[in-house]
Here is the input.
Amino acid sequence: MPHRKTVIFDAYGTLFDVAGAARLAAAEPDGAVLADVWPTLAENWRRKQLEYTWLRAIMGAHADFAEVTADALDWALDVQGLAHHGLRARLLALYDALPAYPEVPQALAALRAKGMRLAVLSNGTPGMLRAAISSAGVGDLIETLLSVEDVGIYKPSPRAYELVGTKMGVAKEKVLFVSSNGWDVAGAARFGFATVWVNRTGQPMERLPHGPNHIMPDLSHLLVIA
Here is the structure.
């Protein structure tokens, strides 16, 4: 594998804990109704959020990730019978301030100290991404935020991965792409990036072409190969 100087990260599920909003809301006084159901709510919210990005891409009916995230939350709340419990606004606010996974700040700092260029390529809107990295305290470690809003279609469309070259001026052969989503890894690998799958929960390999070059349980192992 050629030496690579640019590491591109997916955001949600890779740097930021997508279950964090539901978990944090459940711990608040007004969120007691979520105490027993927040894991299911978080899982349904995330699943439907991703499904809507894929379906909108296929349909040619793009809406930004803030709208998709809100629509997915509405569906997830409805499934749990919680649509009228006044939780929507708080959950969406918490989604803009998702916690980073514990190893993320140290891993990013170590890569920067090694001279790597670090960027995020995400389905999130620019505003969502700025809020997330600021809340997580890693904004000074990320050189560039790349949002699919610039091309109007979600990953794993090749047009999304093309943003790395057009916005950062880096050849795909010099990129290491890191994601916790197997479908995202497959899309990036098909595009021509070397890839790392961060398999935090021990999931089986996706039955898709173009699998990862590396698999690791979290970002703390990344410095060894970057």
About this structure: The chain has a mean pLDDT of 96. Residues 38-59 form the longest helix (22 residues).
